[in-house]
Specification:
It contains four helices and eight strands. The protein is of the alpha+beta class.
């Protein structure tokens, strides 16, 4: 009797889990808000003045594990102007290894103590390596070299060309 009760509960649980997606079909999703659509124009500029609503919508989307931007087509208003000559906007997002600005030896030679070592240093500016994560090995070595953290990025393309700057967060 207890086994059949356990099977009934498992069957109900499984049926419920399988039915949940049917309650919210993909076509029934709400259209993106104006602030969400504004992300397309504000993100490439680094969320300049006037983009606070878009920035909040962007942060809300990534906190909820949604794609950083809504689909561009869902933001388009159909009008006679949106004909075949219109611009096409796409986006890419992923992870990037962040390498902060750091000092590297640019010239080796004899030091003031008659030892051989670095006699000239140069500052290497910060950089991001897209589609790469920071790794730290048991010996403390980092890959890529000097990497301090893994971040995320999003970038917008207009007609296949990078539009503005990538946004790292």
């Amino acid at each position: 009797m207890q086994k059949s009760h356990k099977r009934s509960i498992q069957a109900i649980t499984l049926t419920t889990l399988l039915a949940i997606p049917l309650l919210n079909p993909p076509g029934a999703q709400a259209a993106p808000s104006g602030d969400e659509c504004a992300i397309w124009m504000c993100l490439p500029t680094g969320f300049i003045t006037g983009c606070s609503g878009a920035r909040k919508a962007f942060l809300k989307r990534i906190k909820k594990f949604k794609p950083p931007l809504p689909s561009f087509t869902s933001c388009m208003v159909s009008s006679p102007a949106s004909a075949s000559g219109a611009d096409t906007f796409t986006s890419e997002y992923g992870v990037a290894a962040y390498i902060p600005a750091h000092q590297e030896c640019s010239r080796y030679g004899i030091t003031y103590q008659d030892n051989y070592g670095c006699v000239e240093w140069e500052t290497v500016p910060e950089q991001y390596i897209k589609n790469r994560r920071c790794s730290t090995y048991e010996n403390g070595r980092r890959s890529p070299a000097y990497c301090s953290q893994t971040v995320r990025y999003t970038e917008v393309y207009r007609n296949g060309v990078l539009f503005g700057q990538p946004h790292y967060y």
